[in-house]
Amino acid sequence: MKLSNFDWTDKDSVKWFILLPTGHEGPYSLGQLEQFLAAGKITPEVKIWCEGMPESVPFSKSFTEKKELPPTPKDEIPDLPPVPEEETPPPFIAEELPPIPEVEETEQPAKTRKLWPFVVGVGVVMAGIVFAGMIKNFEEVSIRRYPKMTMELHEKISKELAFEGWNKPIFFKEYLPSDHSHIWLVTSSFETCKVEATFQSLPGKLLALDDEKVAFKSSGVLTDHVVEFSSFDFSAGTKIVPGMYEMDVKASDCSWEGFLPKLMNKFVPPASNYVARTKVVLFSKGAEEYGRILDKLIKQKTQKERVAQNREELFWQDLQQKLQTLEAISLQIEQHFLDFLDSKKFKANLKPMVDSYTKKFGSFLTNFVVENEKYFKTVDLSQMKGGANRRNYEVMVRLTSKRIGFESMKFIEEFQAKKGNPTEKQLEDYSNRIRKAFSAIKNDITQKILQISEDRSH
Predict the structure, then answer these.
(1) Long-range contacts of 136-145 (CB under 8 A, 24+ apart)
(2) Strands across the sheet with 226-229, in order?
(3) What span, in angstroms and rounded, lies between the C-alpha atoms of 140 and 258?
(4) Taking 60 as the threshold, does the pLDDT of residue 199 lie above it?
(5) What is the CATH number of the domain that holds 226?
(6) In terms of pLDDT, which residue wins out, 61 or 163?
(7) What is the domain extent for residue 421?
(8) Exposure of 188 by Cβ count < 10 A (0-12 exposed, 13-18 middle, 19+ buried)?
(9) 280 plus 377 within the same structural domain
(10) Who's near 82: CB < 8 A, 6+ residues apart?
(11) Domain membership flag for residue 367
């Protein structure tokens, strides 16, 4: 069906729809559509449609396709009468006309007055939307590349640093170069402050086989999202050892940095003082690589400690065994002398007793002292725990050995200097003195064994 098939004189028929990008509106009559056009609510190019039409057409076409009235035949058109000449009114008539009244200015309708706040509000909202769109273009955080900061590190920081709001509070993330000569604390906060920080290593968290302590402090200025520490005052250690540290940081004299942060936080002051304690990883390769290396290092330390523990355990066992051996030798020598005195054949058995002592005990004590000195030359007592690095155990064993030999030779020399056989009373006196001397040696050895047990437990 074409547009020309409709009766265009029927403008009150409600059957027309306006087609818009967001959907259709209607139905309306053509009379209503003409009123919309006159009011500027629609344009002549707007598409309209009604049921029965194969497609929509511009509204302007509704006028061009109206049915034209048939022409009137010339024969039927009557001649118009001549236009009568205008008579000049008498002068007195013009003088008698009343003056034209002045048109008074009328007050605007109430409906128009009510629209103004709405229009102003819409304008403010639109201006706010435009301003927010402009601000959105500046919502980013970027830092400059500092000396010692490689392209890779700068790119890593830029990826991890994101805009989190104009009033984002300070929260630092640490970064270091490969030589650990600088520390950069980075934040997404738009503040500038004076910053002081102290760092102290955590036990067992340094990437080093030997557990040591590192402590230092530094200061700088937070600007453009970064505070750089390049000078360090060490109270323990001499350099930054990669590892995990406890960081105490303080920021003071803070203010918003830049025009937009100041504008967006006009009624929100920055933190007057920022104090925080947190754990940080001072390692150029990052926390993930630090964790992997630390796990491997802990295994090496455990193995090393196990070997050292085994070696230390062997040392304590050997040392205790040496003293127990000397204690047993002293008992045997004591019994050797007492058996000699009980034989009642002093002069006859003196030489065989001395020869037996020399062969059985004298050579042993001499070799024992020599081997003891060799042993302690191979042992690093500085690696021993407890009292092992405070006592000279080599001297302890050597002096104990020599004391046994000295007391034994003293009695042998006294026996050899005796002329004739001793009396019963003299033999008893020898026996008592031998028991007393070797009892003191045994007590001394027992005390040394107790000392070793105490040192070992520490």
Answers:
(1) 138/260, 139/163, 141/188, 141/225, 143/186, 143/224, 143/225, 143/226, 144/224
(2) 173-175, 183-186, 226-229
(3) 13
(4) yes
(5) 2.60.40
(6) 163
(7) 302-457
(8) middle
(9) no
(10) none
(11) yes
